[in-house]
């Protein structure tokens, strides 16, 4: 009898434990808020090169020390530019699938240049911004991780994107976002479009009314750190190959910004104070929209654009870029402090990455006997059209050259019954004679190209027959598409394609990973963390080492 009673009690206890386990499985824990951070043009090596100047309570050391770092994350397509990068991060896809083949492209059907987020069917909201407000995510052909989170919650949660750049706010927020806000350089306001809202929320209008830009201009841009630190880490401060965004006579730090107060709201973008402005907007957005304060997971996307503007003007080895990252570290620390206070430590999840990295200024490389050079889209287009006119007695056989893509004028060639194969062969031979060109790839046959597998895959992943050019120019190392000064990005090389990837907070392990991962893996990993479907065009893989 005792044996029967024992077996009965044991069975009931076991069933009780099983029931508890089943109940636990049916109640899926999730973070209150996900914050996706993209630092525009951040090289991976900035994490370590500037490590000693970062503050213990700043952002980078906390993200690295308490979170998880994927140290070998790469962009898997061409071109490595802003629009493609933001789209890849949030879709887990590549231009061949998601359709964003560049910041701009020459559309084969409409026969015109298209900007990545342009939408003439919508209007600006928040300022009389004209074309600057005619923007939406309609050119993106697939869903984003933010869209999938909205779908998974039956649209009861909130998704908002913010950035200085329109494409940095719009694309990450996705198609189904509650709102996206970007900076209008004419008014100094953050604006949106009628795609999202008919008018700005009161809190956003009040934020604009403060004209924080002017208060940042009042500070001027002085050195944050000791002069000896800049001399240790950087090139000399005065270089003819750096651009001059603050005027032809403003050649070294510090910079007088007070002169722009109330007059020119565009200059803020080329200073680290644009990051502070955006962080202030992030705090205001979280508080006003009560993000992370309900029983569903909300998502805020934040793209810090200022490092890209500073990088283009002054380069990775400049005093200005070092100062920008020293200040961004403090700004990120402020954001983490705010999230800890309002959402709760370990109640939110962050990932931080970049849309692309950036090359050294060619003249800086040459000064140190390292190969480098320049070329320019407009000059190359004119040169190629002049060459083809001599060969085939016809003008304008090239529609466009942009972001290392050569677009052949198929309609004109067909109408004149010219031999397109011969034109393309002649172009290729001509380009290969140029000292700065390493190779030329027929994008229609890129999978068969006799080039290293890594580059071939990047060309294939970046090719879309409606929006891509016909020839992909592969330049020699250190050669960039830029003007007479400053620097650029867009190529396959590690200096443009090796990006940081940090995860932090709820559901994230502490550690680092040295195996190769890709930008496409970010959305897949976030989807696994949130137990939701991957975006519709996602080709990335979950990084299991990151997740608890």
Question: How would you characterize the overall build of this protein?
Answer:
This protein is an alpha/beta fold. 38% of the residues lie in helices and 16% in strands. The chain is globular. The two termini are 46 Å apart. Mean pLDDT is 94; it is low at 1-24.
Highlighted features:
single chain; 548 residues; alpha/beta; four-stranded antiparallel sheet; 20 helices; 38% helix; 16% strand; disordered N terminus
What is this structure's SSE topology?
Layout: H1 2-26, E1 33-39, H2 46-49, H3 59-66, E2 68-70, E3 73-74, H4 82-91, H5 95-98, E4 104-107, E5 112-115, E6 124-125, H6 145-152, E7 159-163, H7 166-173, E8 179-184, E9 189-193, H8 202-209, H9 212-219, H10 227-233, H11 273-289, E10 298-304, H12 306-314, H13 319-344, E11 348-353, H14 362-367, E12 373-375, H15 377-392, E13 398-402, E14 405-408, H16 410-415, H17 420-432, E15 437-442, H18 453-462, E16 471-475, E17 479-481, H19 494-497, E18 498-499, E19 501-505, E20 511-513, E21 517-518, H20 521-530
Parallel strand pairs: 1-10, 1-11, 2-20, 3-21, 7-8, 7-10, 12-17
Antiparallel strand pairs: 2-19, 3-18, 4-5, 6-9, 8-9, 11-19, 13-14, 14-16, 15-16
Helix pairs in contact: 3-13, 4-7, 11-13, 12-13
